[in-house]
Amino acid sequence: MDTLETRELRYFVAVAEELHFSRAAERLGIAQPPLSRAIQQLERRLGVTLLERDRRGVALTGAGQVLLDEARAILDGAAAAARRTRRAASTTTKLVLATKAGANHELLQRLLDAHTAEVGAVGAVEIEVLLCGMGDQARMLRDGRADVALMQRPFDALAGFDTEDLLTEQQVAVLPAGHPLAARTSLTMADIAAVPDLPVARWPRQDGIYEPGPGPEIHDLSQLAQLIALGHTSAVICASSRSWLWSSHVAVPLTDAPHVTTVLAWAAHSRSRAVAGLVRTAAGLVRTGARL
């Protein structure tokens, strides 16, 4: 039988992530014996070995890794369905918009103002802005914590979402104000790479892993801002994201960095009238040439 229950998937994910039955049982709030039996029953039903067990511990098999990836997606989808269902039944009309903290502040404000002005005569849908970390917007859309999100192409993973392009712009290098390069009117990526005392800061990828490199690993904008001011790093960001810069920072245009397009993204299967209304507002602004 190919039917999988969410309970046994939760059990399996806990064991697969902990790679330890006792810790997984503690995380789930159950005893270890029934957890072990549940995993064994799951393996028998599927006819595969999901976990290799020996005296050294527990390890995922190839089949186990596949099920872990699929189970996470299924459990996220179930949680998202529950959140969206509760929101649909709510008597309070609210739209949750996720955006990376510190990014595109002016663009976001203009979009919100335009939406309020467009629907204000009949009562504006309340929009809750959910500030998040790098790459979190996609997860929030998929698990139902957000209805729409501001995301950036080519940096964010947009597969599975519908999008409306809002703004395409160049990138800038952010440098400490006292650095010789800060006096330049423009720079190239090669100019930045040739300065060993200012390695470009590294943000995590969508999977949370940092690419190798000399620059410091960055977790939030406050950390980045201080490290730049201290002369320990530089950053490459969208021109419209300069609102968080300090007086001790200088932003210099990059002539050869790829342009970045900010998009409004939402789940492809969404039937929310509130989402459709915000998308219409965004599309109208772009279509009429209004400056976002």
TrEMBL record:
MF term (GO), any: DNA binding
Assigned keywords, A-Z: DNA-binding, Transcription, Transcription regulation
Record-annotated HTH lysR-type domain positions: 4-61
Superkingdom of the organism of origin: Bacteria
GO cellular component, one term: protein-DNA complex
One Pfam assignment: HTH_1
InterPro entries: LysR_HTH_N, LysR_subst-bd, WH-like_DNA-bd_sf, WH_DNA-bd_sf
Family the entry assigns: Belongs to the LysR transcriptional regulatory family.
Name of protein: LysR family transcriptional regulator
Species in which this protein is naturally found: Paractinoplanes tereljensis
Organism lineage string: Bacteria, Bacillati, Actinomycetota, Actinomycetes, Micromonosporales
